[in-house]
Amino acid sequence: MSLQAIPEHHPDLPSGPGVFTLEQIRCLEEAAILLPEPQPNTSTNASGKRKVSAAFSAPRSVSSSSTSSSSSSASVATHGFQPNVIRTFDIPMAEESVEVLEYIGFVPDVARLIYDRYCGRPSPSQNPDDLMAYVTAHLASLSRRQYDNMSHQEALADVGLTRQIQGAITDPRFSHIFGTQTLTYWAQDTVETNYAALLRQQQLLQSHANKRIAHKKKHKRPRHEPSREDQDPSEQQPVTATINMTPQDFQFPDTYVMVQPDANILADHISLYKGKAYDELRPAGDIVESDGTVNLRPLSTYPGGDFNFDFNAQYWTPEIETAEEYRKFAERRSPAADTCIIHIQVQRPFINSLRMENLWYSPNWKEYIWTCRRQATPHPKFDHLWRPGQADIVRGPICSTLSTQLVRIRRENIQSHITEDNVMRLLSGRKATQWVFVQRDVIDRLAEHIRGKMHFIIFEAAVRFP
After folding, report:
1. pTM of the entire structure?
2. Average pLDDT over residues 111-138
3. Pairing of strands 87-92, 49-57
4. Which of 107, 115, 269, 295 could be a cystine partner for 345, CB 3.0 to 4.6 Å?
5. Residue 370, burial from CB neighbour count under 10 angstroms (0-12, 13-18, 19+)
6. Mean pLDDT over the full length of the chain
7. Is the pLDDT of residue 450 over 80?
8. Is the pLDDT of residue 63 over 50?
9. Distance between CA 399 and CA 366 in Å, rounded?
10. 171 neighbors 119 (Cβ within 8 angstroms)
11. For the region Disordered, what residue ranges are annotated (predicted)?
12. Domain spans in the chain, listed from the N-terminal domain onward
């Protein structure tokens, strides 16, 4: 059963202003997943914040017997999701509200400010901007020069992010990852990931409620049988507080994904990795589409990266240690979101057929990264690193210095101000490297080649929403 957005309302019950119908709320209360509220006569609150208590059980097998290792487009393994561990957390019952903005990381006053701006937008029925568009616009102010003389934590506080968010983004443990993007990027990425995680939690609860409602209707009790309330407690069926998840709950189709603990390591293949928040991928679209096609667009890096100045590119690393650092930073910033390591295996003959350029630490590395981070057109001497027909893949070390710092270096100071200290190093001391696919047609071919050779390791949220 696929996840649904807002289900149809039950004809016998009025709908609440939140994303849940009152029938779904009552069903989740009966299952002891939505806990009773402390205030009297508010058990059907459909728009405020409710406390959830449930275990999350990961899929143990694929939903369709037609899927086999030879026909699957990807495989998935999970960490956590223990069906015997009950987790209790609060969740807003609406999709757009002040409570939602507080939930994703804003202090109350700023949450109210953003929400009021959103509600006061002109022509709401025709305005395409949603609440998160107003969040993005609010956080874009971090790029202003007024924040240059503030610490990063002070700047995040000034735009109204909570201390938890401030501390997570600026955690010195992940300074080597933090420097690969801008402060604005990390702030926006963090709250957007939190929002995506919230929507996913709501969808999981909706899906679980819909299944229980459908089951109850299918096994509707004859009129002469006593109701649940009339039964002796010893005769009542136990309620379940376990949400059994399916591949669809991870945005996978049910016929092209295998559930298996480890990837099968293939001979004559090269392994590449990427680590990030899994919930962050959901708004961007399915990676494995309904027909089994692999779609790499949700994994694209926008212009302004180390090696892509005005075009989208695919960034991967040959080191699982590097991918794990990115995943852990996502987990630190958004502890309520599931995170993942994505492992692809690419045939060596395919890689050998591509035009590969190496750009290791050197004067040219400094200048090219400085240019790309500025999103400026590189000097013609760098044409071999990006023009079609000259380069398909560029390999080199990752730069760990904030773009806002790099772009303010004057051209004549590039060589003296950018040093090996600007190269990302892992905890082991080794340099972190990246493989960047820079041509669109090559990325499309890459997607075809990794079908059936893509493995997702999904880690349960470190902390469900507090």
Report:
1. 0.85
2. 92
3. antiparallel
4. 269
5. buried
6. 84
7. yes
8. no
9. 9
10. no
11. 57-77, 211-238
12. 250-459
